Amino acid sequence: MPLLPTCPPLLIEEGLFDEICRSLSQSGYAVLPAALPVLISDALMCCLATMEADGFRNAAIGRGVQSQVNTGVRRDEIAWIEAQSHTARLWLEWAERLRLHLNRHLYLGLFSFESHFARYQPGQFYQTHLDAFRGRSNRVVTLLTYLNHDWLKQHGGELLIYPDNRSESPVALGVSVASVLPALGTLVVFLSDRFPHEVLPATRPRLSVAGWFRLNE
Fold first, then answer.
1. Residue 95 in 3-state DSSP?
2. Distances (CA, A) of 184 to 188, 205, 207
3. HEC readout, 146-161
């Protein structure tokens, strides 16, 4: 039986990046199950496994001097991803290629990328929020991915994405446009200042990576 031709990895990657661009330009968000390359998700898992337990801290809301821990709004723990390790660099280099692709095709002027691990223990949540407010932040595009094997509907922990806050169409209060299970390798990308979203409580530990493409301050 003849072997089927395979696509070069960079060609596959470009197709994924094209799909993200199409979704952002058409609807402002993209949900792509099992889309993150296995090499990258394995690298993130490896990076997470080698982190010290005290590398995580309680997540805060707000930035700079306005940053504060508020467990009534969010209860996850985070650890920022730096480029010191080889495994972390694989993720950051992949995000850099996506940044360049977004700039080339959508002319967004994205300048940099930051990201962190987020760890939710059972019952923890993050209430509805925006990642950026127009005119008050330089976060432009949010990138999320998940590191949870064998995640089932009954485990909960969905990401709910609510309608574009600039939409003039009447939408029932509390109705989401997407409900995303945090299954391994799922990618979620959306415009940071336009889509309110929340994380529902789960019945098992929930691991994710949250990142933001930013403008130059």
1. helix
2. 12, 13, 9
3. ECCCCCCHHHECCEEE
